[in-house]
């Protein structure tokens, strides 16, 4: 049983206690106009995706933990899988979110490339995670690292990977220990510049 399977029954309370969500910053960067499809990669219990359902055509949560997925509210579709090998065709989603998951992954760069692959032209990828360039971010990384491996990428590293996938910066929000970064895929035929 994985760490996340063990904590699934308590995850939402723990999440609330530590204020891990920063939903305003993430929602702002998702820039929902209404009717989009969302993939929440590593979305755990799916509570955030469910909160967006009134503004979405469809929401998916992909997570590696069956115990987390068992807690996803009705109305949100689920898929057990690996963030580094998403089981969806290219361009499947208008919005892809990786919130507080990237630093847990064995290969965070592969997960970013996969997010870029499955986002549709004109869509957005939002990454919300620890910021190891900030003192409080390094402290959070150290505390969490006492429990399980942590591989936090700097905002610049995230931007470099997604930029190499032809995604363009589309906003940034900073907290004391976290950063939320937005990227957009240009529409088909649109020129960069």
From TrEMBL:
GO molecular function, one term: S-adenosylmethionine-dependent methyltransferase activity
CDD domains in alphabetical order: AdoMet_MTases (cd02440)
BP GO terms, sorted: methylation
Keyword Transport: no
Domain of life, source organism: Bacteria
Coiled coil: none
Pfam family name, one: Methyltransf_11
Domain Methyltransferase type stretches: 39-127
Gene3D superfamilies: Vaccinia Virus protein VP39
The entry's keywords: Methyltransferase, Transferase
Keyword Glycoprotein: no
Name of protein: Methyltransferase type 11
């Amino acid at each position: 049983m994985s760490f996340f399977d063990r904590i699934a029954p308590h995850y939402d309370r723990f999440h609330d206690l530590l204020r891990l969500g920063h939903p305003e910053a993430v929602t702002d960067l998702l820039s929902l106009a209404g009717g989009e499809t969302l993939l929440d990669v590593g979305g755990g219990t799916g509570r955030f995706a469910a909160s967006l359902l009134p503004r979405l055509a469809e929401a998916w949560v992909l997570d590696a933990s069956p115990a987390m997925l068992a807690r996803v509210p009705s109305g949100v579709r689920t898929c057990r899988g690996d963030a580094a090998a998403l089981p969806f065709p290219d361009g499947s989603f208008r919005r892809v979110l990786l919130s507080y998951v990237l630093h847990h992954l064995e290969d965070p760069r592969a997960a970013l490339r996969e997010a870029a692959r499955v986002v549709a032209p004109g869509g957005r990828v939002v990454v919300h995670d620890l910021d190891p360039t900030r003192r409080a971010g390094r402290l959070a990384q150290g505390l969490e690292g006492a429990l399980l491996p942590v591989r936090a990428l700097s905002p610049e590293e995230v931007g470099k990977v997604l930029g190499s996938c032809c995604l363009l910066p589309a906003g940034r929000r900073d907290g004391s220990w976290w950063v939320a970064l937005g990227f957009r895929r240009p529409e088909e035929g649109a020129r960069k510049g």
